[in-house]
Amino acid sequence: MDPQDWIGNWRLDTTRTELAFHSPTFWGFAHVKGIFTDVEGSAEAVADGNVTGRLSISAASVNTGIGRRDKHLRSADFFDVERFPLIEVSVESAEVTGTSWVTLSILVTVKGQEQEYDLPVHVRDAAGGEVQLQTTTTLNRQAFGVDGNLLGMMGDAVTIEAAAVFVKQS
Hints:
By secondary structure, the chain is mainly β. The chain has a single domain (3-168), classed as Beta Barrel (Lipocalin), CATH 2.40.128. The protein has one helix at 67-74; strands at residues 8-12, 18-25, 30-36, 39-45, 51-58, 62-63, 86-98, 101-110, 113-126, 130-140, 157-168. It has an eight-stranded antiparallel barrel. The chain is elongated.
C-alpha cells in the first residue's frame, strides 16, 4: 500500500482484532494468558504524514478462561473496573522506520496512570482498503498500579500481543 493510500479515517474491525497478554506467575513456572474481548478504535492519517488514533479497551472484558481468576483481575487488586472501566491507548504520532514498519508514539492509560511508549509496529496490507497492524511489547504492570501479587508469585512484566485490522472509511 502506498503511504498516500493511508490518508483518511480508519475504523477498527473488532471482529478481526485480537489483544492478548501473558504474564509469568508461580515464580515464573507458569504463565497467565488471556485476551481482552471488548476493544474499539479509530485512526486518522493526514497528508503531512501525521497519524493519530485511539483504542478503548473494556477492562472488564479481560478473559483468561478461568472465571474466578477473571473476577479477581477485575477487582481493585488488579484492574479495579468499577472505578476504571477503560484502558486507553492514544496514538500521538507515527514515523515510518522501514519497509512495512512504523513506530507509533503512544500514551497508555490504565487505572488513571499514564505511560508513554515508542511502539514498533508491522504494517500489512489486507484486502479491500484494510490494513493490519501487529506488535508485541512488554509493559511493567506496577507502572499502572496493577499491583495484586499474592506472596510475590507474579512478575511485573506483562507481554502484550496485538493484531489489529483497520478499515478505511469512505
